[in-house]
Amino acid sequence: MRLTKHHGLGNDFLVLLDLDGIHPVSPERAVALCERRIGLGADGLLRVTAGRGEAQVTMQLLNADGSVAEMSGNGIRALAQAVFQAGLAEPPVLRVATDAGLRTVTVIARLGPAQHRMRVDMGQAKVVGPEPEWVEGDVLRATRVDVGNPHVVVQWGGPSLPQRDELVAIGGRIDAATPGGANVEILLPGEEPGDLAMVVYERGVGPTQACGTGACAAAAAGHDWELCGPTTTVHMPGGAVEVTLGDPVLLTGDVTSVAILDTPWP
User: Domain count of the chain?
Assistant: First the structure.
């Protein structure tokens, strides 16, 4: 079985092109493929099948733990890059059916042989309401945000963002206590006025280098809290994206092709 590997700011994905729909992926298989020591290694697996309705293709996303995710802002750029590289659609625009609804990906620039900048129509980012139960210690406030998948955004009061162990403790606790789970973003105002800095604990994965839907959620919460304007740059450990709030929210960031991989199946 041939897969391709891509990353958006260090948030990495395996992509399986299966337009004939003959290679379903079980949760157990996704876990084995995404395992970083004895598998191929990734934060998630994207299976691309035939489109439906206005969409040219359909995205199925399995997290590294085998659970299903509705949407990924970095993952959908990886999917689009794989589809374009395989010649299955003509750039610059790809319409993708996801469990969060129809999304449109547009190539903005070719940055190199294996790297592109893309803009994604992310749908709406809805600030659902405050989550005061998480306000303790260095947590100043928290709010729930819906970006087609669930997020809890936390404003951090410490001088710097929490390191991995503290992120796992906070994110894991919020994820486990939220019905259906939640992605957890911890943010601070960025170094430049109007920018945001963020770390993320992803549902079904744990800490990742970047999260596209999480950046959109952080921008929506940050704007609600008057920490940023309607357009902001969100800095994450893997790099930065630009988020423009509106209906739809627009997410702009890079995606890089890493490898073509052949693996026994099943």
Answer: 2
Residue for token pair 């395992």: 35
Peptide bond into 248 cis (omega under 30): yes
Q: Are residues 88 and 152 in the same domain?
A: no
Same domain, 218 and 154: yes
Beta strand pairing status for 183-189 and 150-156? parallel
For 104-161, what is each residue's pLDDT tens digit? 999 999 999 999 999 999 999 999 999 999 999 999 999 999 999 999 999 999 999 9
Q: Distance (Å, rounded) from C-alpha 237 to C-alpha 167? A: 13
- The answer to whether residues 28 and 45 touch, using CB atoms and an 8 Å cutoff, is no
Neighbours of 149 (CB within 10 A): 24
CATH of the domain at 76: 3.10.310.10
Q: How far apart are CA 78 and CA 112, in angstroms?
A: 15
Q: What is the mean pLDDT of residues 80-97?
A: 98
Residues 6 or more apart whose Cβ sits within 8 Å of residue 54: 95, 102
Whole-structure pTM value: 0.96
Based on the domain organization, do 221 and 113 belong to the same domain?
A: no
pLDDT at 265 over 90: no
Domain carrying residue 19: 2-121+253-262
- Strand-pairing partners, residue 127, are 145
